[in-house]
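Bumping my old thread because nobody answered last time. Still need a sequence for this structure:
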């Protein structure tokens, strides 16, 4: 469930502004058809905002206003989800809604700003909820005996314990990363449209997360899995393998 949620979340976060509405519909559909996640959202209560007025103010301001998400966690969850549902139910173009979330005039930057400041709020709350359930179920318990040191990260684990990681170094060789990603793209020939979308989205996530102060391992793992599902040439597979090996320290 965590993997599936991360997968659809990644797709929405990386969606082109022209495809945004379609991907958002799929995101909402996924949530409403997942009893655990949807139950968590509904458990946060009903949105008390008058959304028609909110949208009129945000869209009508032409970038001069943004949505009020609330003060508490429950408010953020129910309000963000209600905002996203309102967009899909009323077929509202994301460009007009997101203008106030970026100083850029490029639609893609504007949408990215909206995703980072609104959509990601909901994603983070759901991720935390699912992770807590996983811990309660014993998802973090493994029978392992290992002490490893890689790029400054120390992992220590013993029988039925959680691996504790301490990051003392969190840097990436940008030039090498760019070189490996370019090799993957160069060898990505004859791909289907769906595989091309997966490729672009996965590489974007890898680039963003490896350069972030606190890389999200689950997002990186989802991106890696996406690359591995692409059926390409032998050269493409080799290039992907090299890229994956390079980002292993972040996992």
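Sorry it took so long. Here it is:
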């Amino acid at each position: 469930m965590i993997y599936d949620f991360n997968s659809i979340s990644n797709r929405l976060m990386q969606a082109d502004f022209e495809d945004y509405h379609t991907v958002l519909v799929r995101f909402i559909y996924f949530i409403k058809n997942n009893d655990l996640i949807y139950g968590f959202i509904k458990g946060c209560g009903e949105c008390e905002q008058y959304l028609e007025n909110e949208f009129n103010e945000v869209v009508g301001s032409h970038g001069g206003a943004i949505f009020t998400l609330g003060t508490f966690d429950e408010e953020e969850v129910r309000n963000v989800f209600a905002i996203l549902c309102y967009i899909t139910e009323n077929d509202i173009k994301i460009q007009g809604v997101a203008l106030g979330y970026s100083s850029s005039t490029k639609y893609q930057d504007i949408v990215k700003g909206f995703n980072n400041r609104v959509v990601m709020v909901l994603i983070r709350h759901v991720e935390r909820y699912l992770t807590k359930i996983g811990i309660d179920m014993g998802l973090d318990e493994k029978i392992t005996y290992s002490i490893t040191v890689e790029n400054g990260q120390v992992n220590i684990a013993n029988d039925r314990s959680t691996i504790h990681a301490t990051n003392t170094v969190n840097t990436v060789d940008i030039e090498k990363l760019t070189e490996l990603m370019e090799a993957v793209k160069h060898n990505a020939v004859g791909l289907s449209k769906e595989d091309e979308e997966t490729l672009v989205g996965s590489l974007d996530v890898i680039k963003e997360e490896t350069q972030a102060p606190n890389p999200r391992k689950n997002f990186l793992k989802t991106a890696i899995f996406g690359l591995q599902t692409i059926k390409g040439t032998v050269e493409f597979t080799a290039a992907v393998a090299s890229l994956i090996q390079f980002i292993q320290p972040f996992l």
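Residues 142-170 form one domain. Let me know if any region looks off to you.
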